[in-house]
Design brief:
single chain, about 375 residues, alpha/beta, TIM Barrel, Non-ribosomal Peptide Synthetase Peptidyl Carrier Protein, Chain A, 2 domains, 16 helices, 11 strands, globular, binds flavin mononucleotide
Length: about 375
């Protein structure tokens, strides 16, 4: 795919004192953007990676799972840890804990998650309804981060537009976030009621951008270079955050960056994706000691292989694999089975021509209780 419309929309971005090489941010996605996946996204050039949201109360009480969720590799720089919760005190202690341990360059506060269990604990997007607590949390986090002289760790916030279409408060909320001392805000252009469906209302991001001086990042259904360009033009935002579009095709980040420089997209075909899955599988194997996590990777294997030629049996086999070696073996067999067919190019090219039909729906969202 040759791109004759390069526009240099991707450029360096400063968040407080932290500089990103480019303004494409990998969205935090619970159950998806773990250490191995984030490394893959970094490989394709993501300007910033963010971990899955971490519960501040769990961190406060030193939960055993938190260090695994937070851990980053040396290649992940800059790196943001996203936290969520309701207790101001737990937010404060978590910020101190993260900075003391050098665990992140940026700390992001989640005020957008609509998952039932999160909202019912007065966290996530609930905080857009409870502005006073939201203000206290951001102020406390900024203050706690400022206690450390040596290293400035900016506090950022991720929000939605508001509760429903009748109560869109994002521009005003952004102003409050800025006044509390936060260094960036990401706006998912949907309300709580919209969950993950319905067309994003990008025009409100333009209003957020007008309301504040700190960088505003646009999020919601940005699935291609053309879409990123349109959204940035429409909103004047300082960057984009990409979520579901990277599921099963993380190279779209690389494609976006290439197309912005007038270069052709990577043109990934099935054999290329197989090579990538093998690398991803090795990272999963190396990172996790327990088998449960290969189980999490299985869902990614199904995203990677969606729409492949004659892949029904392959996908069945991938549902039962339990190690990187087994994954390699199943993929090699599949490749062998399609090799002799001498398929025309377009049958090996699944990525843009064959967009998954249910991509836009809430399917991925309900697959994960922490989804937002
Ligand atoms: C499976 C899943 C998990 C998610 N987990 C988080 C999360 O931990 N923190 C967060 O701020 N947003 C989370 N989100 C929301 C995304 O970051 C993003 O805001 C949303 O998917 C809209 O962007 P998109 O249309 O590019 O996917 C999640 C979304 C999905 C689909």
């Amino acid at each position: 795919m040759i791109n004759d419309m390069s526009a240099n929309i991707f450029r360096q971005l400063k968040i407080g004192s932290v500089r990103l090489d480019n303004n494409i941010i990998l969205a935090p996605m619970a159950g998806v953007t773990d250490y191995p996946f984030r490394l893959v996204a970094k490989l394709f050039g993501a300007g910033l990676t963010v971990c899955e949201m971490i519960n501040v109360t769990a961190m406060h009480f030193k939960s055993r799972t938190t260090p695994t969720l937070i851990r980053r590799s040396a290649a992940e720089k800059p790196y943001s840890v996203q936290i969520f919760g309701h207790s101001v005190e737990h937010f404060e202690s978590s910020v101190r804990n993260i900075i003391k341990n050098g665990a992140a360059d940026i700390i992001d506060i989640n005020m957008g998650c609509p998952a039932k269990n999160v909202v019912s604990s007065k966290s996530g997007v609930y905080l857009m309804k409870d502005r006073e607590t939201a203000r206290k949390i951001i102020t406390a986090c900024v203050r706690a981060a400022a206690e450390f002289d040596l290293k400035e760790v900016p506090i950022t916030v991720k929000i939605r537009l508001g509760w429903d279409k009748e109560s869109i408060i994002a521009p005003d909320f952004c102003k409050m976030i800025e006044d509390c001392g936060a260094s960036m805000v990401t706006v998912h252009a949907r309300t709580y009621s919209m969950q993950f469906s319905g067309l994003p209302l990008y025009e409100h991001i333009a209003r957020c951008k007008e309301a504040v001086k700190i960088p505003v990042i646009a999020n919601g259904d940005i699935v291609s270079y053309e879409k990123a360009r349109k959204v940035l033009e429409l909103t004047g935002a300082d960057g984009v955050m990409i979520g579901r579009a990277v599921m099963g095709r993380p190279w779209i980040i690389g494609d976006m960056l290439r197309m912005d420089r007038g270069l052709p997209a990577l043109d990934f075909k099935i054999p290329d994706v197989i090579k990538l899955i093998k690398i991803h599988g090795r990272l999963v194997d190396a990172f996790y000691s327990d088998n449960n996590r290969v189980e999490c990777f299985r869902k990614q294997l199904l995203w990677y292989t969606k729409g492949w030629y004659g892949s029904a049996q392959l996908r069945e086999s991938l549902k039962t694999v339990s190690s990187a070696d087994e994954i390699d073996c199943v993929l090699d067999k599949y490749l062998e089975s399609i090799h002799h067919l001498d398929l025309p190019e377009n049958r090996l090219f699944t990525i843009y021509e064959n967009e998954p039909k249910d991509f836009r729906g809430g399917k991925y969202a309900v697959a994960n209780t922490a989804a937002q």
